[in-house]
Design brief:
By secondary structure, this protein is an alpha/beta fold. It is built from 5 helices and 7 strands. It has a single domain, classed as Rossmann fold (3-Layer(aba) Sandwich), CATH 3.40.50. It has a 7-stranded mixed beta sheet with strand order 2-3-4-1-5-7-6. Helix 1 packs across helix 5.
Length: about 180
């Protein structure tokens, strides 16, 4: 990214519960799970979110998984604000329909582009947070989007998924260590 980040929280977007665990919409949860595992942290329930503190280099980071379902992800923002975490201190990890499967990119700010989790966060704190977008591709028919994001990855995609989740975690570490 173009400028230094002061990340204090990484919010992985997803839906809680085993039904959604391996769906495209839950890639944010899976990437923060990978970071928690990598740094030997465990998840603790704290109100409407699960948190796992980690240290990347000298930086203390709070990993966050909202437990509100995707459309209400922004409900965690007031709880983070009480800890002094502002929008510019947040990195959101989410699925991105507009990118081909496995494409990883950072961005700061922007619109929700139809993503209900991002829309909820933007309503809660504005658009000026960093994002790691994980490409999941797009179905051919626009009407299929709702079902598509709640489906599991295809077998061919599953074969690459663990490597891509690792790549995403590596990108986050490199960005924070800059």
């Amino acid at each position: 990214m173009a400028h230094d980040l002061d990340i204090k929280a990484i919010i992985g977007l997803g839906n809680s519960g085993p039904k959604y665990e391996r769906t495209r919409h839950n890639i944010g949860f899976r990437i923060v799970d990978q970071l928690a595992q990598r740094y030997g942290s465990s998840w603790q329930k704290k109100g409407i979110m699960e948190i796992a503190p980690i240290m990347i280099g000298d930086t203390k980071i709070l990993l966050v998984k909202p437990q509100t379902f995707m459309n209400n992800s922004g409900n965690v923002i007031p709880l983070l604000a009480k800890q002094g975490i502002k929008a510019e201190n947040i990195l959101v990890v989410h699925d991105e329909l507009e990118k081909p499967f496995g494409n990883l990119s950072f961005r700061i700010g922007g619109s929700a582009r139809g993503h209900n989790g991002l829309r909820s966060l933007i309503q809660a704190c504005g658009p000026d947070f960093a994002r790691l977008r994980f490409g999941i591709g797009r179905p051919e028919q626009k009407e299929e989007v709702g079902d598509y994001v709640l489906r599991n990855f295809l077998p061919a995609e599953q074969q690459e998924l663990e490597r891509l989740i690792d790549d995403a975690a590596d990108m986050i570490e490199q960005e924070i260590k800059k």
